[in-house]
Automatic annotation (TrEMBL):
Pyruvate binds at residue 55. It holds the Pfam family DHDPS. The active site is at residues 143, 168. SUPFAM superfamilies: Aldolase. GO terms for molecular function: 4-hydroxy-tetrahydrodipicolinate synthase activity. It comes from Streptomyces mutabilis. Belongs to the DapA family. This is Dihydrodipicolinate synthase.
Amino acid sequence: MTATFETQRAALADVVAIPVTPFAEDGSVDPATYRALLRRLLDGGITTLTPNGNTGEFYALSPAERTLVTELTAEEAGDRAAILVGVGHDVPTAVASARHARDLGASMVMVHQPVHPYVSQGGWVDYHRTIAEAVPELGVVPYLRNPQLPGARLAQLADACPNVIGVKYAVPDAARFAAFARDAGLDRFVWVAGLAEPYAPSYFSAGATGFTSGLVNVAPAVSLNMIEALRSGDFPAAMKVWEQIRRFEELRAANGSANNVTVVKEALASLGLCRREVRPPSKPLPEDERAEVAAIAAGWSI
């Protein structure tokens, strides 16, 4: 790996925050509130931001809204954070989004797992290769949710595209992750635990050095406490954080993660930080579940 990407690699070996996208009363993206939420993350010590991630409701945003979110993040973060912009959909759209991110000064793009119903292994490589080759200056991070893909395919991609420097691994199987990382090249990539804090301890034990987080929108200090414990190899301390966040993350993961974003926005709404509204196919929490989320958020040191 050339030294060109060392800064990007270091940024991935951290809490990789996935900001929510707040909506105004009329349903549009709320730029002022989004900026305020970003400032809260930055002031809380977060230094890696992923606009247009799944917690940001990537697939519910229009192309113009995704562009807006990227621009707001670049403007607000300045040189305070590395920006890892989520891109995806069809290849021309993903390439255009990646080039837009580059032009705004972002240093990396995260390529969402293709949602096409028919994804071949070779097609997966071709999809990511086309995007990576379009922005050789940027670090490229595949978001991997496909348990069928072997590690050798990632190695094949990186052989062609040296700017593929990390992986957001989001298959919920720590043993599979350990094998995949070693088949692809454990030291070749930065391995980011893509299922956030609940999976971070087990994935760190197998070679991950960073994790993504939606919870960080609510309580940056909690996420930072976990990564500090994991970096020092203090797994008992990391598991104390795990216990602290367990119920919150169980609520997010219930029913096939139906309320993954909803619970985060509900917690933020309970703190007066943004509106609770999400877009279909997500849905706000019913009244009887809101109190539990608010109580959890209120109990954290925020």
